[in-house]
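Deliverable D5.2: sample structural annotation.
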Amino acid sequence: MNDLDLVRTMRADAPIPSRQRLDGGRDRLLAAIDSPSAAPRSARPRRRRGVLLAGGLAAVAAGAAAVVAVQADGSPVSLHGAPAAESVKYADPLVERAAFGWLPGGLHANGYVADHQNEKFFQVVAEDGKAGGSVTLTAYDRGKEPALGYLPGGVPAKRVPAAAVNGHRAYWIFKPSPSGQSSFKLRWQYAEGAWADLEGDGLRGDAAALTRTAYRIAGSATFGGARPIAMPLHVDGVPAGLSPDRTVLNNGAHGEVGAIVGYYAGGPSSSLGISVTKSDGTVGADAPGKPGAPAAGRPRPNTKLRGYPAYQAKSFLLVYGVNGFDVQIDASGSVLAKVDKTGGVAGLFRRMTVFGPDPANWTTNPVN
């Protein structure tokens, strides 16, 4: 992670950083999402969720009924048996609102984020798993220009003059350096009231070559698409009246696979988070802390759910190794009260289908 990325992780409402993007992997899946903010915000407060798969689990009071899971080797795992839940239609949480056109050889899109907090945006990442290079395209919701953020050392970023992109005004936030700095960040207004950022990291070439690369990628990018993106899970029974929070899909970045769908009911403490992370076969060994205190890492199982080691509590559930994934659900506040009427977080788990790591089996309808 370069210095610019390190600064960006300090802002909870910023797009995820390029070297820790997509919250990929057990130790990274939600680190960027829940990073503390170092910049003032006038928008609604950040919602802290106890959904860290490692190194940040928010401890919750223990005690809930056992969950039933059914393993089908190599095929989706459906979990049934919860009380009936209200049938509610939610829009697809992850829709391709921006896409790459041309990319340097070896790079391909393998990660997506749809964020509905503060500065709302859609983000797509392309990585080269062998060489380590990556580019991130972020399309913000229409409205005023997003904040510039900060440069290394906490210095406020400034606009650096740049040539237009497809006839639209543009500027650098972080310009390729003549000394061979391999990172850059270009912003342009691709339509009236519509802004996009392109960030590169770990790419080869001098300043002139990186500038040409940046403009070729930016000039071929497209915006305004409506293609739903398939995800490796489906869950029924998400309560009515919620708004999307943050949806993440990591489809191979860093060799990892994971997904998050999140909803909230307003305010900082009424939320629902559902995530799956490709399992590496390990099971947590840390004891949960006292209520309100974080654990040191992934929690030690306190039960077995149909043969799967699991940690279970009233508002939090983590089940290890379900069809190649670790499954995590947490709820809080008024959302938890709604979830409790239909079997709690365990009830949501019973109504889940986990499709396994093969994208050919995934669904574009992950919720209800």
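Annotation notes: The chain has a mean pLDDT of 77. The first strand starts at residue 77 and ends at 78.
The annotation will be released with the project's public dataset once the embargo ends.
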